[in-house]
Here is the input.
Amino acid sequence: MAVLHCRRTVQTCAALQPCDKGRTMYRYYIEKITVTEADMDMQGRVSNLRYVQWMQDLAVAHSAANGWSMERYAAVGQGWVVRQHRITYRKPAVAGQVISGATWVADFASRQCTRRYLFWRGADAALLAEAETLWIYIDYASGRPVRIPEELSRDFAAAEEAEVRAALAAG
Here is the structure.
């Protein structure tokens, strides 16, 4: 468990599996997030823009935990861009609450992956939001989609939503 500096107070990588290089692969990634006043919209609840930022932050952190930092993507000259976000808001979160954000890769195709997200408030076992992003893998120089390298796809394994929900419920 590592302590981070900013809104995220504790990060947890879960569902460990060995990779072919002897390191650990994290099938899903969970962070505890302390909601601040800066996260609020004019209605006094977490802004939809903040959820999108948290989604990106979780994806980047999960990727880095599996050995694919932003620096590594830059070195290979390829990386991910968002094609589409879909978010369903279930219940509001407000300043002062501690929530959990979870992400996992639901599936890989040759040039894209679908990444899922859940935002959960453990205090009352409330599902706050569920989301999905379609990420496209591109070449940075051309901006065109390219095939996901085998090395990258080997470092991630699709997870099932049920196992992520169980981990969130367990706290």
Notes: Residues 1-11, 15-20 have pLDDT under 50 and may be disordered.
